[in-house]
Each structure stands twice: as structure tokens, then as C-alpha cells.
Specification:
Helix 6 packs across helix 10 and helix 7 packs across helix 9. Strands 1-12-9-14-7-6-4-5 form an eight-stranded antiparallel beta sheet. It has 496 residues and is of the alpha+beta class. Helices cover 35% and strands 15% of the residues. The protein has two domains: 304 residues, Sandwich (Jelly Rolls), CATH 2.60.120.650; 170 residues, no CATH class. It is globular and about 75 Å long. It binds 2-oxoglutaric acid and fe (ii) ion. The site of fe (ii) ion has 6 residues, from loops. Fe (ii) ion (FE2) binds next to loops.
Length: 496
Amino acid sequence: MSEPIQLLASSTDLSYDDFVAQFMAPNRPVVLPESAIRHWRARHEWTTDAGATTGSDAVVVRNIDIDRIEALFGQAVAPISDCDVTQTYGMAGLVGTGRSDDGQPLLKEVTIAKYCDYLRRRRQHVQRQSRSTGTSVESRDGSIGKPGKPGDHDGTIVSDPLPADRCIYLKDWHMTRDFPGYNAYELPVYFSDDWLNGYWDECGSLDQNRRDDFRFCYIGPAGSWTPVHFDVMSSFSWSANICGRKKWIFFPPEAREMLTDAAGELLSDVRSVDETRFPNFRNAPRIELFQEEGQLVFVPSQWYHQVINLTDVISINHNWANGCNILGMWQLAKEDAQLVATDLSLESASLDEISTSKQHGAVAAVRSPAAPAAMFGLMAATAEQAMTVQDLLRANGSLDFRAMHDLCMVQVRKIQQRSHQLALLAPSAVTAEVCAARNRHVSDLKTIRQILTDISRSTFYRECRDAWPASIDIEQELSEQETLQRRLTELFESFK
Ligand SMILES: O=C(O)CCC(=O)C(=O)O
Ligand SMILES: [Fe+2]
């Protein structure tokens, strides 16, 4: 696949519906230009003038303002991983593999202050090295940053301070959750219909202990990288470069078999592929993309990607879902439930053996090509087993069935509110956009009803229902949604 990824000329020219039709519904990547984030607070406050450009096609004009980041956020903590160590994903299946989140060992959490101290020393280290060898750590094509020789490190950095001679990536920092009043950026309108974070916001507003989200900040030196994966729970993601450049290598979902070895392990680094293990890798369709400073990448669901930071980079990214990919997420949740149930019958593992990292869900990434079709209604025989499967799904950062139900219901309530507002509109206010929004609500409702119907027929609903924190009655909810759908249709008729 050589078709390049489109860079939109403007971040606002396309209507929301056109963006959906051209990219989200067909599940195709796209890049928004720098103007999409030019006004963001983070773009100005977290960066300094780098005093140079590196060429007409590559605009690196800003650099990480390490002092500022430390002063603003020094006390917060975030996970780091060691990019000099490459591991591969574990076998397909969920239970007891003890795998790390995305193939690189997650070392531990550090304070932002400690990481800033590392970044300063890393810069000096890299400068010293390039003076002594006459080479630059950065190359234009991303051929930098290859991991160290296998076995040269055991992947468990515990030293304090963090060692400047190692390439350490700060990932999955919940910056927005940690600093909710700071408003570092604004959600681009195309990504604003976000069912996943909407659900977590609702959970957090009801219970402080359940404050969570899928909004992240990444900070990495040149050469840091993220191994091949697709995003957690089959979500979409978007990723914006506050400063610096990234190289992306994308593989469409159908390339999965070419990226997976006979044992179901996913390859990690496209720069060093063992062709005896991955004989078809060469033929895998792929698209390479250089994401320049300020640009924002839309990552479609289930597309595999590897990301290499070509310079020091700060990026913001969200995992998210809406009516376009929620069915895919539901399908994956069912398959994960099947995998867990199958694994449970093979081995008994405890919850703490399982990695709980979220951003790059190992579950999704390593699923075996031979994973059986979901028979989720049949497999969980007892209430206890059904509960265990649900607990394990949650512990792996997958959506358990109850969470999927709740997520859908948050959305139904939003559609309900919207339908009240629509009913109050004067005829002159009924624009084509309003009609498009109403169509989306109806189609979202249909999708949600399909998922809720599935859940209501599952063994899990039958077996776990009594143990779930608040009782639910899906049959009742479905009948209320039918009324809501009718109401939206009648409204639409009255607009004509
Ligand atoms: O920038 C990175 O290192 C990884 C980003 C990524 O995988 C994503 O946004 O989905
Ligand atoms: Fe990703």
C-alpha cells in the first residue's frame, strides 16, 4: 500500500459529517494541519523557540521547555518505559502471561520533576556523544533509536537519577486528569463525540475513586519509540505533536497475519524483523508518515502502528470511541471474554499476574489469528466463573460487559437531552446540520440497541446481574429507547 495519508489543508473546512464520511466511517487515517492546535495553551507554554528550522518540509521551530514543564507539573507522576530494550508480546490469550503493555517493559512511575532532570542530562549526553562520534542522534528517516543489543540490559531500571545513557520514554501520563483546571488544549470538533471518555467522566463525577480517562501526554527524547500495536479495546486515537517530529508506520487491520508469528506473537520493531519468524512481513501493506510539529494524526481503529520520535517530542493523545467504532469495540470485548474463559479453563491465574496498563492493550494486540469465534453466550457456566471473566477483562483494561452497558446508557441519556433540545427548535433553525445530527442520533441509538440486546442475551448478564453494583433491567431500557427512537423520527417528520 503506497497511497499516502492525506494532510488536510485546513482543520475546519470539512464539516463534521464529511469528516465522518471520509475518515471515521471508512476507518482511514488522516492528518490535520498545525492550525488545528496553534491556539493551544500547551503549544505556547510547554515549548521554547528552538531557533531553527530543519528544512522546508520539516518544521521544527519549538523545543520542550523542560524548566516550565517541571515548574508546572513537577509533582505529578507518570509511567516510563525503556526504549533500549525490546520485548515481544506474549502469546495470545489473557491469563497469566505477565506481559508488559506494549512490548517495552514499563519500568515504574516517576515524578515529572525526576523525568525533567533526566531529559536535561539526556540532552547533554547526546550532545557529548555526537561531538565525539561526529554523528547526530536524529536522522531524517527514523532509522535512529534502534534498541540496544539484546541482553545488554535487563529492562528494570531502578536507578535514581534515571540514567542519561538510556532512552527513556514517559508515556500514558494522565495530565488532564492530574490538572483538570489547566486546560492545556481544546478538543478538536471532529473528536468531540467521545463515548469512552464521556463514560469515564460520568463515573468520576459519581465517585471520586473512579476518576479515570484515556487522555494522555507523552514526552520522549529523540529515538524513543512505541512498538507495533493497535490501540486498546479497538478504540480510535488521535495524537498531536505539541513540539517535535514523529515517524509513523501504519499497517491496516488486514495485515495482521503478516505481522504475527506462528505462535500468535506480534512483531515489535519494523527496523529489525526476523524474517524466518515473520516470513510474510515483507508483503504487509503499510503506509509511512512523517508527522511534523503541530500536526495531528487520526489513528483508525485496529490499524497497527509503530511510532518513532525523530526529535525530542511532546504529544497529546486520546483514545476514544463513538458510533463508528463502538460495534468493533463490542466485538472485541466479546472475543476477549471468550479468550479469558478459554484461558481460565486451561490455567488458574490470579488477577495480580496480569498487566493492567491501558494505553496499548496487550489483549487486543496479541489476539491469536486462530481465536475462536465469540461464543460468549455459552462459555461461562457458573456465576463465579462469569464474575471472574468480567473481573479479568477489567483488570486487563478491556471493557467488561457492565461497563459497556453503562457506556451505552451514558450516550442514550445524551441523545435524550439532545432530542429535547431538538423539539424546542424553531422551524427556521432546522438546518441541514441539525438534520444530519438527528440522523446520527438515530443510527447511534440503533447501534446501542444492538449491543444492549447482545448483553441482555449473554450468560454474563444472567449470572452477574445480581452482583453488579446497581441493578439494571435491559429489557426495560430497550423499550424506552424504542420510544426515544420513535420520538426522534416524529420530530424529523415535523421538520419537513
Ligand atoms: O507517540 C507514540 O509513541 C505512540 C502514539 C500512539 O500509539 C497512538 O497515539 O495511538
Ligand atoms: Fe497507538
